[in-house]
């Protein structure tokens, strides 16, 4: 183990306390994380990604009206028995799979004080080990190994790691943006600073922050001393900026540039695209749906 190297992260934190206002009225009585992407709720894709990356302990930060999240990952013996008696073995397997993904814990945020506050709520559960944060709105293609790569970079550097993605320069004002320096001989980059939603002409790069982080536990002390920022909330970006500002006094901030496929299910258009694309790739739905899409597209007019 190198001087900077730390033990491998094995815990994941998934903030899921948001109100989902962009999808009202659908989210008036349903958590936005339970909106289906084809036939699985969006949150299940995120938990599956964490488990596939070797994270065997998941903590979900929830809020009021989020009980459906716990119910979804719990056993339903009556339903399982009914499916078994009916010979619906494929459906039974799908239902049982959601309950067998791994060790999932739940903790309420209580006060909506921002993403940084939600992550801080995980302090006692996480302890002094590095951990991953996965935002539920970001769906990463299941064939990608982004999170595994980030965990490896964190273990090798001993610092904190953020996922970055190139976006058109004119769109960078919709994202947090990273000022980076290449690291010789490495596929990851050094993050020198973070700018929240800069004007395109002021942005240090076209690298946007997306919803995957692997953090050194020093982030908790920094969050405890981070005053409310934009929107009166404790911003995780502000805490990560503090790590960058500290330089050698901290463990460092690094980035992994993601070039794969991602959907933002918190955005209506991207959510619809996720449903269509993923359904088109399914063996049971894809052939008929692709034919329908082709026929439908022929009738579209500019």
TrEMBL record:
Family matches, as Pfam families: NTP_transferase
Nucleotidyl transferase domain segment(s): 11-275
Record's keyword terms, sorted: Nucleotidyltransferase, Transferase
Enzyme Commission number(s) from the entry: 2.7.7.9
Gene3D superfamilies assigned to the protein according to its UniProt record, in alphabetical order: Spore Coat Polysaccharide Biosynthesis Protein SpsA, Chain A
Domain of life: Bacteria
Keyword Magnesium assigned: no
Reactions this protein catalyses: alpha-D-glucose 1-phosphate + UTP + H(+) = UDP-alpha-D-glucose + diphosphate
MF GO annotations: UTP:glucose-1-phosphate uridylyltransferase activity
Matching NCBIfam families: galU
Family: Belongs to the UDPGP type 2 family.
Descriptive protein name: UTP--glucose-1-phosphate uridylyltransferase
Organism of this sequence: Kocuria carniphila
Taxonomic lineage from the root: Bacteria, Bacillati, Actinomycetota, Actinomycetes, Micrococcales
Gene name of the record: galU
